[in-house]
Amino acid sequence: MSVAKTRVAVLISGTGSNMVSLIEAGQAPDAPYEVVLAVSNIADAAGLDKARALGVQAVAVEHAPFGKNREAHERAVDALLREHGVQVVALAGYMRLLTPWLVRGWAGRMLNIHPSLLPLYPGLNTHARALEAGDQEAGCTVHIVTEGVDEGPALGQARVPILPGDTAEILSERVKAAEHQLYPQILMKFLNAPKP
Fold this sequence. Notes:
There is one protein chain. The chain is of the alpha/beta class. The chain has a single domain (6-192), classed as Formyl transferase, N-terminal domain (Rossmann fold, 3-Layer(aba) Sandwich). The protein has 6 helices and 7 strands, in the order βαβαβαβαβαββα.
């Protein structure tokens, strides 16, 4: 008897490299989840084609037509998630600040990966900031999404050494490789953990 897998949606804005690692890990027979939907706020995000190539339905819900009304855009995204029976949402390079409305609707069921060792360097330009600070290491954090930007409880981290001669771009590639391993591991651990 096979146990039903948790239905996961991945929200992206770009190339979807973390999304690909989540999809592929979820396709293993013993994985506790499967990615059933990829959603982007950018119509021509490269990640959408990657999702389709891996057999996952991929949809763009562009934010531009909604103007400054972020909640209206999120309501359209939320309707899509619910229509597909999504149970957990994974943000993977989704470059939109979420409103409290969406965060509350998925409280405790929305994860994000951030390219720094939170609470260090929330927000953008994390690698440049780590280099400027003279840090010995960088890394990434998977955390629960809360209303504050990159403030939710951390579920797991991966550490990456900063090497002599690193630029933000070189460091970014090394951290990205760590992200691709960490995110599926932490999502599985999160879903396998006993629920209170």
